[in-house]
């Protein structure tokens, strides 16, 4: 299996976990609640999760350590940006693409739990680099 196929397979497992969280909790909670439950669900499925990962940036030669925090990094290869908003906006997609570029990761998912059907709250964002 190629690296891209492995990442695609993992993203399907992540989406399955998100569907389970959404099925049990429904919409309307805070992002922090979904983050906690997603982390637990992924761990129960044997998937390695890192929460609130610091993403330092460099600006004109100065490293800024606490610039950003990534919601979740899955298996060191997929970024999850969790939302509980009325709709995923273009800025959410741009934010995740910037995170992908800064980390040099290939795939990210914006998952908005504040929707009646979770499939309507998932956006897949791919960094332009090839695997």
TrEMBL record:
Lineage: Bacteria, Pseudomonadati, Thermodesulfobacteriota, Desulfuromonadia, Geobacterales
Any Pfam family matching the protein: PDDEXK_3
Name of the protein this chain belongs to: GxxExxY protein
Recorded superkingdom: Bacteria
Matches recorded under NCBIfam families: GxxExxY
Entries under InterPro entries matching the protein: GxxExxY
